[in-house]
Amino acid sequence: MINISVRKTSKEQEEVLINAATFYLDKLNVRKRTIPLDIEITLCKLDADGYCDFNYDHKYPEIAIHLNKRLSEKDMLVALAHELVHSRQYLRKELISKDRVFLWKGKTSKSYEWEDEAYDLESQLYERYENECKYKHWHKF
Q: Residue 3: which H helix or E strand, with range?
């Protein structure tokens, strides 16, 4: 079971972000889980499009996604796709971060190789969402 919550946003934005996250997780084959997963999406001021944090110290996975609230709707949905790719990497234990050290597929990496996959998939996921789902747009940030 996956629980998705959205903080610091309007009801319209919350609905769109939850629908998009559910769609992306389905396409990333993350929805088929036997243990619970909590995903919290927060809109805030950032120096990037988004961040994804994974909590290893809980009895079941917790993921915190922070999205830049100044992004356009499309850019925010692309950033959400990107961060959910990272969520899948964490869940598969392909990406592990502890104390600002990143392990990618079991090896220390300073070149951020995991970003390649996220950048490759973000636009594909967004375009599929846009084409396959007639989603409700929010009117104004």
A: strand 2-7
What CA–CA distance (Å, rounded) separates 114 from 49? 16
Distance CA 44, CA 67 (A): 6
What φ, ψ does residue 124 adopt, rounded to 5°? -60, -45
Sequence-ordered alpha helix ranges (H) in the chain: 11-27, 73-91, 114-132
Closest CA to 81 of 131, 26, 130, 20: 20
CATH 3.30.350 at 2-131, yes or no: no
Ordered per-residue pLDDT tens for the chain, 141 residues: 888 989 988 888 899 999 999 999 999 988 776 678 899 999 999 999 999 988 877 777 889 999 999 999 999 999 999 999 999 999 999 998 877 788 899 888 778 899 999 999 999 999 999 888 866 665 544
Answer whether 103's CB lies under 8 Å from 112's CB: no
Closest CA to 27 of 131, 137, 124, 114: 124
Domain boundaries of the chain, sorted by first residue: 2-131
Based on DSSP, count helices (H) and strands (E) in the chain, helices before strands. Answer: 3, 7
